[in-house]
């Protein structure tokens, strides 16, 4: 064990980790959010053009520009979460999620897809925020000042709804860059491992990021589990399972304790497929309290704090 078996040190590490996250957040999060707002503004403006300032919310408009669906959800009163829209319209979650990333599911029967889209449009039209889009009530032309105000409000709604994922993604990118820098100094090479080859054939002295690893769920069926970093140490013996790392950051204690079972489930599934010697290491920065740490330790998980990344050496890296 690296840190899981030393609870007397947890309090000091928690305080240092929280401070590190706060320092990063104050320095980086405002710019990250501003950049996201700029991108959101472009999406909102494009959606207004594609729908003639929301006058034509139709399946054809969505199929022509699928990503406008996220903007349309933020144009209702109240704004609609994805699950709320699918629930109200009785439509497919997978279709909505695919459309919002700009993909039209190729295997969905066209008539079923169109029925789903019509149902979504009916809900969006019924709930459109008429106070925000006054031209829809009057039937007149769109005044520039009204469009500018609506663009600003919908942009803020869209950016706000995505704020937490935006911050988490920026933090993950930073964490993986730090791991990469640490590995490169120690002569590791970034190299993709072919999905067709067993994981224990990964070349020593190499690493890969955001890799899908095959595991087994509770029913024994194979599932793909995304792993943030996979590292095969220089000293690995033939047939050894590489070290698996999950990069985790958190800006508050509540969410980490709500989601602490995820890592425990993940490591059980990995060990069911790869063997009990499989090691899933958490790379932590932010708000992880003693309750979270104690739970993960009891499940056989260990961790390395970002503020003491050199502990990776104790994991054999």
- Name the CATH class of the largest domain: Alpha Beta
**What is the count of distinct domains?**
2
Major sheet: order of its strands?
Answer: 1-2-3-4-5-6
Low-confidence parts lasting 5 or more residues at pLDDT below 50?
Answer: none
Features:
six-stranded mixed β-sheet, 2 domains, alpha/beta, Trna Endonuclease, Chain: A, domain 1, elongated, single chain, 12 helices, 6 strands, about 325 residues
What would you say this structure looks like, in words?
- It is a single chain.
- With 317 residues, the protein is of the alpha/beta class.
- The protein folds into two domains: 7-28 and 164-315, Trna Endonuclease, Chain: A, domain 1 (3-Layer(aba) Sandwich); 33-162, no CATH class.
- It is 51% helix and 14% strand.
- It contains twelve helices and six strands.
- The protein has a six-stranded mixed sheet.
- Strand 5 (280-286), helix 12 (290-298) and strand 6 form a beta-alpha-beta unit.
- Helix 1 runs antiparallel to helix 8.
- The chain is elongated and about 70 Å long.
- The protein starts with 9 loop residues before the first helix and ends in a 12-residue tail after the last strand.
- The mean pLDDT is 92.
């Amino acid at each position: 064990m690296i840190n899981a078996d030393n609870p007397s040190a947890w309090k000091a590490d928690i305080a240092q980790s929280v401070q590190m996250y706060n320092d990063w957040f104050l320095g980086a999060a405002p710019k990250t959010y501003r950049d996201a707002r700029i991108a959101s503004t472009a999406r909102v403006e494009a959606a207004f053009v594609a729908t003639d300032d929301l006058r034509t919310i139709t399946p054809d408009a969505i199929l022509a520009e699928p990503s406008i669906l996220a903007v349309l959800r933020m144009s209702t009163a109240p704004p609609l979460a994805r699950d709320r829209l699918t629930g109200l319209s009785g439509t497919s979650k997978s279709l909505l999620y695919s459309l919002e990333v700009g993909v039209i599911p190729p295997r969905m029967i066209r008539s079923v897809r169109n029925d789903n889209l019509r149902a979504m449009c009916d809900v969006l039209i019924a709930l459109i925020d008429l106070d925000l889009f006054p031209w829809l009530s009057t039937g007149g032309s769109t005044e520039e000042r009204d469009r500018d105000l609506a663009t600003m409000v919908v942009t803020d709604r869209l950016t706000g709804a995505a704020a937490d994922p935006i911050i988490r993604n920026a933090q993950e990118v930073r964490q993986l860059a730090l791991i990469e820098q640490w590995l490169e100094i120690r002569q590791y090479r970034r190299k993709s491992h072919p999905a067709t080859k067993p994981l224990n054939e990964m070349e020593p002295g190499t690493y890969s990021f955001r890799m899908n690893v095959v595991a087994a769920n509770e029913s024994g069926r194979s599932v793909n589990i995304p792993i943030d970093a996979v590292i095969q140490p220089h000293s690995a013996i033939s047939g050894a399972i590489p070290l698996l790392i999950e990069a985790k950051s958190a800006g508050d204690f509540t969410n980490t304790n709500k989601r602490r079972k995820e890592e425990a489930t993940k490591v059980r599934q990995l060990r069911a497929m790869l063997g009990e010697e499989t090691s899933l290491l958490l790379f932590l920065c932010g708000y992880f309290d003693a309750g979270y740490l104690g739970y993960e330790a009891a499940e056989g998980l260990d961790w390395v704090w970002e503020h003491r990344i050199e502990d990776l050496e104790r994991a054999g890296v």
